[in-house]
Structures are given as structure tokens and as C-alpha cells.
Amino acid sequence: MEHASAAAAIVDTRGTVTGWSEGARQLTGHSAAEAVGRPARDLLAGPPPPDALTALAGILLLRHRDGTAVPLPVRACPLQDAEGTLTGYAITADTGAGPGPALAEQAFQQASMSFSVFDVQHRYLRLNDAACRVMGVPEADLLGRYFSDTVDDAEDNEGFLDHLRQVTETGLPVHYESYTGEPSGNREHAWNIEMWPVRDRSGEVTGVALAAFDSSEQYLARERLAVLNEAASSVGTTLDVVRTAEELVELLVPRYADFASVDLFEWVLGAEEPPTATADEITLRRVAHGSVTEGTPEALVELGASDVYPEFSPPARALRQGRAVVSQADDPGFARWIDELDARVPGGIGHRDGVHTLLAVPLRARGTTLGVAVGVRVAQPDDYAEDDAVLAEEVASRVAVCIDNARRFARERHTALALQNSLLPRGLTGQAAVDVAHRYLPSGSLAGIGGDWFDVIPLSGSRVALVVGDVVGHGITSSATMGRLCTAVRTLADVDLPPDELLTHLDDLVTHLASGEGADDVAELGATCLYAVYDPVSRRLTLASAGHPAPVVVRPDGSAQMVPVTAGPPLGVGGLPFEATEWELPEGSLVALYTDGLIEDRDRDVDDVLGALRRALTAPADSLDDLCDAVLKGVLPDEPGDDVALLLARTRALGADRIATWDIAPDPAQVAAIRTSVGEQLLSWGLEETAFVTELVVSELVTNAIRYGAPPVQLRLIRDRTLICEVSDGSSTSPHLRRAHAFDEGGRGLLLVAQLTQRWGSRQTGSGKTIWCEQPLPD
């Protein structure tokens, strides 16, 4: 019976095995010598089913020699001697009655996942068909060979071997994932691997079995989701068009492309709106590209350069079709385009020679096409597929929105900056009272352009107004509001109001703007403002603040200090007074006015910044312009978070030799004597050419003051860049021009003054009013 090929055994009535076939040995691993003479129950892994004893058929769970359980359908046939006495049973395997060793073997061999068995020395014992396909060789070529001898010396294979050792040494199962190529090909796969120990009857580990499931589809799906998440977090971190394109290239290379580029239409990089008609030729500007090869030798177009894409090229097709285009090496348009690139730039032929697949996807946002992104694979073996096109369109749509947002921000910033520049003083003409220099730095932050402004306004009597202000908020709305306030300040300054009264009127205006119709367009009003008036005759600086930082004054001796101005509430609060402060300054003093962007920084202490400002203002400089630059360099951080306006004014003084003053009694008879005295003064100044007009103007103004004004009456001539004539009296009634009729005896004086002088006006004083006029000096 040892040589029988069928799986059969004989058991006597005592349950002892008395016969054992070769088929039984192959099935269980036990030889005849090991099985014969043993109780049959020792060969079972579990008790037989209760009905099997009566039916003489059923499924027995045999214990294999390696300790595993083998379910086997069997039948039992009674054996009798010559007298008919039962002597035992012949038990045979019923291979056709149900699952058996042959079917189990077929299931192992034909499994869709890879199954392998190794001994404790990591030599192959078994492989199924799927495992052989992965390895690329038949099972016979691997049996008995060490795993490390059958694969390349790669990091992933070393990791596989380490896990085999871990299972062998610890006797514990291991589960892990790996993304690597298969030995039989060059395509990357994701593997979900399970390893577990195989034990004998004594529990000793005799081998390691493994199952490897190809989870590439699930892995790639997770990768695509990860790319989308990364695109959402890493692309569009700044409102800069070029930087956003660079972030897209960094996302694609080297993960999804060996070379990637982003080309945009010219208008995207400017402040223009998109064209209404599509041009026949597609001209794009290269804004970003990247490669796995240093120096990006594959690139045809240099960064910042423009190129025309022929209609048959994949990028042009993607733009015209409005969807992603996948091209392979066998695509005629693709091959033709690559040939043209090689002909135009032969230096990159070696790097473009291996290009086998290309993906071009249009960048579209809000119904507008902005450009195209291109990915190329050279070293990566896999061609782009439809799944890659779907992913590319999803990423491109998100990136395009970021680029469009950056474009819109740049356009709004350009508009706000142009508006603000148009409202700020273009060139400050020379002033007799002060020498000035200024700087305006728009914010580079994402908040946009702010509402900072400054101005230098000539006033009567050689005086000058120095103004600096800041509107709350950023953007076009703040710039427009700044323009309103700047115009309002100039209008109020023309009335020659004192600083505290001017701020009161300006506060009323802001309150009116914030509460009236269209208040939503007024940038979160309020605003802050500092208004100062310097008189070179008295050398007095009078100023008032509406919530604005106090100026710094540097005296000729080099001492610097903050002007102790009483800061009133910001403009727009309403109902609270403003208080003026008056300082007398030596000639040559420096007055520095600025907005809070110069000194306020959340990362620095204000006192430290003010100390740096005082040191910068007292540092030697060849000119006021150089001093402006030095202040900005010494005080500002590398990236200011707000707009900065800086206005420096160095004071002058008019000496007594340039001023003549007469106190006039309220008697019309005094007019002739005053005319004579004025003529003599003009002669001493060398201005005899102006004597006729000046005497006539003085006669009219002094006569009006005596006739219609109130004492005291005073005349003052100032020889500055113009000849200024001022007549003051105690009456607060302001004069005005009126049309004199043919038979009227008066009403022509001011009209005559207006015709003979360059400009004229009046201003209120603490004790009355002053009427003034200016004449140009002779060449």
C-alpha cells in the first residue's frame, strides 16, 4: 500500500493505523513509517463530525506534518475477514466530492494577488502564478534561491528583506505598504503586503508566507487627493502672479513631471482688461518653468520672454479646446512640435530626446483663459493618462483662480497707486519759508495701498502749511477718500484758518461723509491729520493734531525732541475740540512729519523706533533728500506692513531788513505820507520799478481800512520771492469784490487791486483781519 498513488489509509477496530499509501504521505507529509501503528486520532486536527461515523463519510480535518490543518472529504469502507468479522476500515480521500487538495492548490496558484512562501533563511519555497508574473521568471527559477539574489540592490528591496527578518525573528505578522517598481517591468506599483509566520506542530517558525496586493489604483487616488490638498495650501500663498506660477511648477516637478512650464497672456501681467477678440496667433509669455535637470536645459523660451505657439502644438490645442490635452510620442502634432523645438534650439536636443508624453492644460478662471501649464515626462516611464488629465484640470482650475486673484489685486493696487500719485504733490515748488523733501512708500502687503498723504501749501505772508494725514483702511476707497480730504485741506487752507479751526471744519466734513449717502464708499472713516503753519517772519510753528503722531523737531545744535502737541481725536469722531500748539524755532531747524507706518510695527517697541528716528534725523547728510533716504533705511523694517509718508522741512527766517512796518492813524490825510514812505522803502530795496503799482495798491488798501475798518491800522511790506503788501485793521468784516455802476463813487478799489497784483486775499486774525496782495519782483 506504500506505493499506491491514491490517498488511502487502513484503520483497525481499535483505531490504530495499519496501512498508509504514498498519496496519503503526499497529502499530509507523514511517511508510512510515521503513521502506521499510531492512533488515527493523533493524525486529526479536530474531532470528526458526529454523523460521519454512522454515514461512513464526511470531512475530516487532518493535521499536516508542518502543523497546518488540511480539510479532506473522505469515505470509509468496512473490512471483514473470511468469517465475516469486522477487522477495520479502508479510508480513501473523495477528491470529487468537494473541496480538496487539488482545488486548494489551484486556488493558491490562480489567486489574483501575489503569494509566496520563504524558509527561515529567506529562500523561496513556493510562488503562485501572480508572484511569478511580478518577478518575471517561472517558479522553478526561484525555488531554493535567496530573495536577495533575485532582486536588485535597491532601498525598497532592502526594506522587504528587513520585514522578512522581522517576522522570522519575532514570530509576529507584519503589514506595510510600499511604492516601488516590479522586477518584471519598469512601472511603479503600490503594494499592500501582509507577512505572517508559518509554524510546525511544536510552534517553531519554519517559514514566512506573504500576500501582496497591488493597490496602485487606491494609492494613485490618494495621491491625487493629496495633490489637490497641497495645491490648496501651497499655491497662491502670495498675491503675486509670477510667484503663484512658480508654486505650481514646484508642485508638479518632480512628482508629476520631469519638466513643467507656465505661460500666460501678456495682458495678465499688466493692468489691462482681457481683449474682446481672440488673436489668430497665440503669443504667451513664459513666467515660470522647472526641471529635474539643473539649469532647465529643455526650455525653449527664457523666463520673461514671449513665444508664438503654432496651432498644431498641444498647448495651442489645449487653449483653443478649453480642456486638458494629453499627447504621446506617436501623436503627429506632438512629434512635429518637438522637431520644431529641436530645430530652433539644438542645444536642448539631448534633453528633449527622451520626451514620450506631454500634458497641456489651460488656466481658466471666471470664464477667462489666462494661459497654459505644460507637463512633460522624460525619465518617468508612465505615460500621462485620462486620470492625469482630470487631475490636471482640477489643479489648474484652482491655480487659475489664484492667478486671477493676484492679477486683480495687482490691477487694483496699480489703480489705487495711480490715483494716489495723481493726488499727491508732484513737485513742491521752492518756498521762502522752508526747504522741503519728501518720500512716499506704498505698502507691499496684501492689504493694498493705504490712504496716506502729505502736502505743502503756500499761505499769505510768506507762511507755509505743512500737512500729513492717514485715512483708515486700504485700497481704492481709501485713496479716493484721501483725495477728498486732501482737497478739503487745500480749500480750508486757502481761507487761511488757524490749525485748530481747520481741523474742526475737516472733522465736520468727515462726519458728514461717513453719515451721508454712499457712506459705504468712505473707507471706514475716520482718519488722522496733522496741520502745521510756519511763519518765517516770527519763526513760529503753530500746529494741531487730529489723532496723528507728533512731529520731531531737530534744532541747529543737533538736539531732537518730539513736539509736545495735544493730540485731539481722529477725524470723524465729532464733537470734541482740537488744541493748537505754538513753538518758536531757530532758523535752520528741521521739522519731520510722518505717518504711523514709519514708527508702528507689532514686532518692535514704539519707544525704540522713536529713538531710532531721532538718531536718524540727527545724522549728518549732504541734503534733505539724502536725509529722507537715511531715515527710511534706519527706521523701517525690511518689509513695512503699511504705507509710509515722510515730509522733512528745514526752516528759514526773514530778517528785519526784508520787512517794513507802519502803524497808521485812522486819518485819510495819512495816506499821502504813507505812499511817500513806501516809495522810499522800495527805492532802498532796489524795487523802484514796482513803486507806481505798489503805491497805488497801498493807497487803495489803506484808504479802505481807514474808511471801513477799525483801528488799529497797520501796513507791512515783505520782500520775499514776491513783494507782499499787507494791511491789517481791527474789523473782522471781510471785503469782497463787487461790480461798480457807472455813477457809483466807490466799489472799484479791490477790483483795481485784483487787476494790478498777481493774487490777493484776506485772512482773519485774533484782533481783526488782514488784506494782502502779492506782486512779482522785477527780473
General description of the model:
The chain contains 19 helices and 32 strands. α8 runs antiparallel to α12, α15 runs antiparallel to α16 and α18 runs antiparallel to α19. It starts with 7 loop residues before the first strand and ends with a strand. The protein is α+β, with helices and mostly antiparallel strands. A hairpin with a 2-residue loop joins β31 and β32. The protein is elongated. The strands form six sheets. A six-stranded antiparallel sheet has the order 13-12-11-16-15-14, sandwiched between helices.
* Whole-angstrom Rg: 49 Å
Average pLDDT reading: 84
Percentage of β-strand residues = 25-35%
**Count of helices?**
19
Spans where pLDDT lies below 50 across 5 or more residues: 96-100, 739-746
Please report the distance between the alpha carbons of the first and last residues. Answer: 141 Å
Biggest beta-sheet profile: 6 strands, antiparallel
What structural class do the secondary elements suggest? alpha+beta
- Counting DSSP E segments of at least 2 residues, the number of strands comes to 32
Spatial ordering of strands, largest sheet: 13-12-11-16-15-14
Q: What proportion of the residues is helical, as a percent range?
A: 25-40%
The shape is elongated
